[in-house]
């Protein structure tokens, strides 16, 4: 009877070491990589098959056959394909039992023929799943292509062995089983291809963990960005909130020079409490949102607009001269005044105006002093009849 003890021993050591490595990997990633369970079982079965062949060749075939089935299950789990495992396992185990019975009857050539044929059938099914998996673009396609090549190599090796077993059965020359150099050589090639196959799985798992890590990093970055936006944006108007506006105002103040022509505008919706009381808070929110839209249309690159709080908005703008400043403020007041609030809100008597306080952002003044000044100018605009703007040497009605 043909036995290749050196190959079986090397195969056992090789598969057992990889199986231990996969076990550690599985224990740490069982939830994230469910396919590891099947591949780990497959490796242990391969190890037991080589050990059984080393001790007594007749006990090894069932381990090899079932090992390939679990390898197939691991691949299907990895690519997300559902497989009804129970009937398939029953068929594979039945083939293994029949093959084992043939070995016990010492019909070695027949048993090896059945074993080779069964392995080829399982590998062809595995190859089909691999080919289907790489048809769609995936991050793991390159590794699966390598796996395909190795599976094809193993199929070719088993087909050569199948051809030799067929020849022995036809010629009844069983002496070739123990004397031909063909069997040790193909077994060694098989072990090398099997090692490559198992390493390709390790590469695949490594790519999967890297992909998951990058995905997690991207998701975390997106969550952080979403939180940043939520922390800096006003929910109703979708403009910058006060925290964000104060931060930008501080940056503008720190960079201002004597030659700068930066201004801060504080805009207040006139009689906003009456709008809320008369038409409801939903209409009030609509008014605030539309005021934000109007103000945003009057902002140039590098300028800011945001909701300061309640019914107040703040703008930081840069103008060429006082006339440019007045023209821009006048256009804001006119657009708010002439906007069709009735059509937008469906409220027949709704009209909206704004009052504006204006103050230059001047070097040498603190943030508190500038905000106090612009608040005072806004107060003047409201006390003098609203629907107007007030500032140093500025009165726009």
Element string (H = helix, E = strand): HHHHHHHHHEHHEEHHEHEE
Taking the sheet with the most strands, its summary is: 6 strands, mixed
Residue runs with pLDDT of under 50 for 5 or more positions: none
Number of domains: 2
Q: Percent range for helical residues? A: 55-70%
Query: Which radius of gyration do the C-alpha atoms yield?
Result: 39 Å
Mean pLDDT: 84
Spatially, the strands of the biggest sheet line up as: 2-3-1-4-5-6
- Residue share in β-strands: 5-15%
Structural class, by secondary structure, is alpha+beta
SS field, number of helical segments? 14
Structural summary, described in words:
By secondary structure, this protein is of the alpha+beta class. It has two domains: 5-224; 242-396, Reverse transcriptase/Diguanylate cyclase domain (Alpha-Beta Plaits, 2-Layer Sandwich), CATH 3.30.70. Helices cover 69% and strands 9% of the residues. It contains 14 helices and six strands. The chain has helices at 5-29, 35-55, 61-79, 85-104, 108-133, 141-171, 176-179, 182-232, 242-255, 272-279, 281-297, 322-338, 341-345, 367-383; strands at 262-269, 304-309, 312-318, 354-360, 389-391, 394-396. Strands 2-3-1-4-5-6 form a six-stranded mixed sheet, sandwiched between helices. Helix 3 packs parallel to helix 5 (108-133), helix 5 (108-133) packs antiparallel against helix 6 (141-171) and helix 10 (272-279) crosses helix 11.
């Amino acid at each position: 009877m043909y036995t290749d003890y050196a190959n079986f021993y090397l195969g056992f050591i090789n598969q057992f070491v990889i199986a231990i490595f996969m076990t550690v990997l599985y224990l740490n990633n069982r939830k994230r990589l469910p396919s590891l369970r099947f591949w780990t079982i497959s490796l242990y079965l391969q190890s037991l098959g080589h050990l059984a062949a080393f001790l007594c060749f007749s006990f090894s075939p069932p381990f090899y056959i079932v090992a390939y089935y679990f390898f197939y299950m691991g691949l299907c789990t990895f690519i997300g394909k559902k497989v009804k495992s129970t009937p398939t396992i029953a068929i594979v185990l039945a083939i293994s039992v029949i093959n084992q019975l043939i070995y016990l009857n010492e019909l070695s050539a027949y048993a090896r023929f059945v074993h080779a044929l069964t392995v080829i059938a399982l590998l062809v099914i595995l190859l089909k799943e691999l080919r289907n998996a790489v048809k769609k673009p995936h991050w793991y396609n390159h590794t699966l292509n390598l796996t395909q090549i190795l599976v094809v190599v193993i199929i070719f090796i088993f087909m050569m062995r199948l051809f030799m077993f067929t020849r022995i059965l036809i010629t009844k020359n069983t002496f070739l089983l123990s004397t031909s150099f063909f069997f040790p050589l193909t077994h060694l090639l098989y072990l090398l291809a099997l090692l490559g196959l198992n390493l390709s799985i390790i590469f695949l798992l490594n790519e999967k963990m890297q992909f998951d890590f990058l995905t997690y990093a991207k998701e975390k970055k997106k969550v952080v960005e979403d939180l940043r936006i939520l922390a800096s944006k006003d929910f109703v108007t979708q403009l910058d909130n006060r925290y964000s506006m104060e931060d930008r105002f501080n940056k503008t103040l720190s960079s201002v020079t004597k030659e700068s022509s930066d201004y801060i505008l504080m805009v207040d919706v006139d009689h906003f409490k009456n709008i809320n009381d008369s038409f409801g808070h939903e209409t009030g929110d609509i008014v605030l949102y539309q005021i934000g839209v109007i103000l945003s249309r009057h902002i140039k690159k590098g300028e800011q607009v945001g909701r300061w709080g309640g019914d107040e908005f703040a703008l930081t703008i840069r103008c060429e001269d006082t006339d440019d400043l007045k023209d821009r403020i006048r256009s804001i007041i006119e657009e708010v005044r002439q906007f069709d609030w009735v059509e937008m809100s469906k409220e027949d008597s709704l009209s909206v105006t704004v009052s504006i306080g204006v103050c230059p952002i001047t070097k040498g003044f603190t943030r508190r002093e500038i905000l106090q000044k612009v608040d005072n100018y806004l107060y003047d605009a409201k006390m003098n009849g609203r629907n107007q703007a007030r500032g140093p040497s500025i009165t726009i009605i």
